[in-house]
């Protein structure tokens, strides 16, 4: 049996100093796609830097965490976690 990890990641845009939250099972490949302009939501916000990541046993769990961080309570928690990085 092959286990696929899931990653939650936060990118920081050097262009507008805003963050982007996403999830994937291929973190290096996904970050490369963001920085090559292949992701619609970030193509005009490049360059981007990885500033936070969490690893989960599955992509489903990473997506659940992503949705939490996109909620009101999650955005507050994320602000606390990232206060030294922003």
Care to describe what's here?
By secondary structure, the chain is an alpha+beta fold. It has three helices and three strands, in the order E-E-H-E-H-H. It has helices spanning 27-35, 59-69, 72-82; strands at 6-13, 19-24, 48-56. The chain has a three-stranded antiparallel β-sheet with strand order 2-1-3. The longest helix has 11 residues, at 59-69. The termini are far apart.
SSE map:
Elements (H helix, E strand, L loop, with lengths): L5 E8 L5 E6 L2 H9 L12 E9 L2 H11 L2 H11 L4
Antiparallel strand pairs: 1-2, 1-3
Key terms:
3 helices; alpha+beta; 86 residues; single chain; 3 strands
Supply Rg: 13 Å
Number of strands: 3
Q: N- to C-terminal separation?
A: 40 Å
Which structural class do you get from the secondary structure elements? alpha+beta
Order of helices and strands: EEHEHH
What order do the strands of the largest sheet run in, or round the barrel if closed? 2-1-3
| Main beta-sheet annotation | 3 strands, antiparallel
| Helical coverage, percent range | 25-40%
Strand content: 25-35%
The 3D shape can be described as globular
Count the DSSP helices: 3
Mean pLDDT: 94
Low-confidence stretches: none
In a few lines, what is going on in this structure?
36% of the residues lie in helices and 27% in strands.
């Amino acid at each position: 049996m092959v286990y696929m990890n899931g990653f939650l990641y936060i990118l920081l845009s050097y262009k507008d100093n805003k963050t982007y939250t996403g999830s994937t099972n291929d973190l290096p490949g996904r970050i490369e796609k963001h920085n090559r302009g292949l992701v619609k939501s970030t193509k005009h916000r490049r360059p981007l830097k990885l500033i936070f990541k969490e690893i989960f046993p599955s992509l489903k769990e990473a997506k659940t965490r992503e949705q939490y961080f996109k909620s009101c309570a999650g955005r507050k928690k994320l602000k606390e976690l990232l206060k030294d990085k922003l």
